[in-house]
């Protein structure tokens, strides 16, 4: 049996925003795509992830204007995994960095995103997290 790789469980071709895009643009993109997290890039390089919670807690609640660049919400060094890395590597990277989503790279190219939900579906399909991850969004 071959070892499962990140490419086997990731969401391919994630939606991205540029580091210069405004918080309004980021929020509109999330609404249009019905997703809660976007990869933030500077040019072609993944430099972070912004979530709907970031927009509310670190943006709106902190008094940032809607025309503020998303760069102000992206902090620190983004952690990534390679598409050929074993799934266990993604688990360990996420655990050590205490993050829920990680961009997936092929060399320097963004090819996907992997979340704790993706990993739960694969590693423990009967878990509550897997059930939640599998279900349709509730509006």
Automatic annotation (TrEMBL):
<protein>
    <submittedName>
        <fullName>CBS domain-containing protein</fullName>
    </submittedName>
</protein>
<dbReference type="InterPro" id="IPR000644">
    <property type="entry name" value="CBS_dom"/>
</dbReference>
<dbReference type="InterPro" id="IPR046342">
    <property type="entry name" value="CBS_dom_sf"/>
</dbReference>
<dbReference type="InterPro" id="IPR051257">
    <property type="entry name" value="Diverse_CBS-Domain"/>
</dbReference>
<keyword id="KW-0129">CBS domain</keyword>
<dbReference type="Pfam" id="PF00571">
    <property type="entry name" value="CBS"/>
</dbReference>
<feature type="domain" description="CBS">
    <location>
        <begin position="10"/>
        <end position="66"/>
    </location>
</feature>
<feature type="domain" description="CBS">
    <location>
        <begin position="73"/>
        <end position="132"/>
    </location>
</feature>
